[in-house]
Amino acid sequence: MKNFQKSMILLGAAALVAGCHSQSGEAMAGHGGKMPPPEVGVFAVKTEALAMTTELPGRTSAYQVAEVRPQVGGLIQKRLFTEGADVKSGSPLYQIDPATYQATYNSAKAALAKARANLAASAPKVARYKDLVAIEGVSKQDYDDAVAANEQARADVESAQAALDSARINLEYTKVEAPISGRISRSTVTPGALVTAGQANALTTVQQLDPIYVDVTQSSEEMLRLKREMDNGGLKKSGAQPRVTLKLADGSTYAQEGRLQFADASVDPSTGNVTLRALFPNPKHDLLPGMFVRAVVENGVDQNAIAVPQQGVTRNPKGEATALVLNKQGMVEQRTVVTAGTQGDKWLVKSGLAAGDLVIVEGVQKVKPGAPAVASKVGATAKAAPAGGAANDAAAAK
Question: Smallest Cα–Cα separation from 262: which of 287, 292, 242, 233?
Answer without folding.
Answer: 242
